[in-house]
Amino acid sequence: xxxxxxxxxxxxxxxxxxxxxxxxxxxxxxxxxxxxxxxxxxxxxxxxxxxxxxxxxxxxxxxxxxxxxxxxxxxxxxxxxxxxxxxxxxxxxxxxxxxxxxxxxxxxxxxxxxxxxxxxxxxxxxxxxxxxxxxxxxxxxxxxxxxxxxxxxxxxxxxxxxxxxxxxxxxxxxxxxxxxxxxxxxxxxxxxxxxxxxxxxxxxxxxxxxxxxxxx
Length: 216
Prior knowledge:
The protein has helices spanning about 15-20, 50-55, 60-75, 115-120; strands at about 1-5, 85, 90-95, 120-125, 140, 150, 155-160, 170, 180-190, 210-215. It is an alpha+beta fold.
């Protein structure tokens, strides 16, 4: 894993989302009147809460510009060539007593494994709150080792990691804090080939102009 530090005053993701949900302390949004969830999220429903809808409904107007500026200044310099990036980062909310993703998995289970091997896609975890212990992503250290441990990530850090090959998921959040985060994927342009598969949530085709965009 690679940890990338960034300036939250320049990229105030938490502040922006906090204004949208009218809650200054983002890791306490489970105390908001918006939180009416008593059932543990399933794989089919882990992208359908009101918190998700607020993010996706406001992405173009509130997040697109700052996200692409963040990529340009903090992520693009990690690569020595143009990159293909996930056009809309996937939103997660990990409420106390709940999970953020419905099952432990490898990303390649949902797509063509040969395609993944060719494009060498990398994952990036960008929390809007501190992510720790049971409110973070639990991931194995080596493929199929099953020695899961949580990513410990502060707000102001972004983590580059291999969600394609490493099994990962969530435990029930036993902390007193909600984790709010997004994650996105990057491919080197020289490795990129389009795929006829579509994303599990939006069904957007894995192609530039669909799920992905190009940054020179």
